[in-house]
Design a protein that fits this description.
- With 156 residues, the protein is α+β, with helices and mostly antiparallel strands.
- Helices cover 36% and strands 28% of the residues.
- It contains four helices and five strands.
- Strands 1, 2, 3, 4 and 5 form a five-stranded antiparallel beta sheet that branches.
- A hairpin with a 2-residue loop joins strand 3 and strand 4.
- Helix 1 packs antiparallel against helix 2.
- The protein is elongated and about 85 Å long.
- The protein starts with a strand and ends with a helix.
Length: 156
């Protein structure tokens, strides 16, 4: 049977438990039509969308790895179109499934490790360490602005 990766986005106002119930329903449809879900479904969490979809700015993301006939995928997609809770879905046929967690789950782990180390994305621990620069001059030592302008004009 062909292999697929299926990701769907559920509305942000649903609880995580409701999203799990929807996933279980879709899993039941796939298994009822002779397919199987490989591994556990990956719940990626609530993420911010790039643009609003049906007045939603965020969505629950879930990925399923499938080994199923095309008819089962068609039926799941039909049920997702009918559901008001599903904002978007995409199914991609793959040659083989990746071993281990998906790229999104590895990103979550990497971000979690970074937070534990304390070096966030915008953390500039060296911001006030200006050891390579000399001391700052006082305003009195600087050239007046009027003297600097004629010299710049003469160079042109």
């Amino acid at each position: 049977m062909p292999l697929y990766e299926h990701v769907y986005l559920a509305r942000q106002d649903l609880s995580a438990q409701q999203v799990e119930e929807m996933t279980a329903t879709f899993k039941g449809v796939i298994e009822g039509l002779g397919g199987k879900v490989i591994g556990d479904p990956e719940y990626w969490g609530v993420k911010t969308l790039s643009f609003r979809i049906r007045k939603n700015r965020k969505a629950h993301f879930t990925m399923l790895r499938l080994d199923t006939p095309p008819a089962a995928v068609t039926e799941v997609e039909r049920q997702e179109r009918l559901s008001e809770d599903v904002l978007r879905y995409i199914t991609v046929r793959v040659e083989e499934h990746e071993e281990g967690p998906s790229a999104m789950m590895r990103k979550v782990d990497r971000d979690r490790d970074r937070d534990e180390r304390g070096g966030g994305r915008f953390d500039r621990g060296d911001r006030f360490d200006r050891g390579d620069r000399g001391p700052r001059r006082d305003r009195d030592e600087r050239r007046p602005r009027d003297e600097a302008e004629p010299a710049a004009a003469a160079e042109e």
